[in-house]
Design a protein that fits this description.
alpha+beta; five-stranded antiparallel β-sheet
Length: 163
C-alpha cells in the first residue's frame, strides 16, 4: 500500500502553502555551534585528571574569550571575572563554543557574544538549573551592551542566586 505524505505549515513548522516546505536546515551559525560542541566534548574526553580537566577547560574559555571582537571580548572578560569571583562553585567550560559555567558538569549560565549569532547585543543566559525562580515567570536571559557598576552588581547577585 502506497503512503502519501503532505507537508503543510502546521506540520512542518515553516511558513508556506500546503504541499510546500521552505525549511533549508540549520543556519551556518547553528552548524558551527554544533561542530564546536562536538569538538569540546572530544577534547574533554581526552583529558586526564579532574584537576587537569578543570584547568584545561578554563584555558579553553579564556582562549575563546580572547578570540572575540573587542566589544564582546570586553563584556565576556568582565562577566567571566564576576562569575568566578561570586560563584566559585561554578566551573568554566565551553558549551556549544560559548563560555559557560557549570555545576557538577551541568551548565548553569553562559555568555553568548553578539557576533556569534549576528545579534544586536551579547547575552548572559541561565539554564533551567539556575535557581532564579521567582513566581510563575522569571527572566532566564539578559541582554548586555556594557558592564557598568550597576550591571556588575546585578550579575553578581544573579550568579550567587543561581547556585
Amino acid at each position: 500500500m502506497a503512503r502519501t505524505t503532505t507537508t503543510n505549515a502546521s506540520t512542518a513548522g515553516t511558513a508556506g502553502t500546503a504541499g510546500s516546505s521552505t525549511y533549508e536546515g540549520f543556519s551556518a551559525e547553528e552548524r558551527a555551534a554544533m561542530k564546536a560542541h562536538a569538538l569540546d566534548q572530544k577534547k574533554a574526553a581526552r583529558r586526564g585528571t579532574a584537576a587537569e580537566k578543570a584547568a584545561e577547560a578554563e584555558r579553553d574559555v579564556l582562549a575563546k574569550i580572547a578570540e572575540m571582537q573587542d566589544s564582546d571580548r570586553i563584556l565576556a572578560e568582565r562577566v567571566h571575572a564576576l562569575i568566578t569571583a561570586n560563584a566559585p562553585a561554578l566551573a568554566p567550560k565551553l558549551w556549544y563554543g560559548m563560555p559557560s559555567y557549570a555545576l557538577d558538569g551541568k551548565v548553569v549560565c553562559f555568555f553568548q557574544s553578539a557576533e556569534k549569532f549576528k545579534a544586536r547585543y551579547a547575552t548572559l543566559g541561565f539554564s533551567d538549573l539556575a535557581k532564579l525562580d521567582d513566581g510563575p515567570m522569571w527572566a532566564a536571559g539578559f541582554a548586555l551592551t556594557e558592564v557598568t557598576p550597576e550591571v556588575e552588581t546585578r550579575i553578581a547577585e544573579l550568579v550567587r542566586r543561581a547556585v
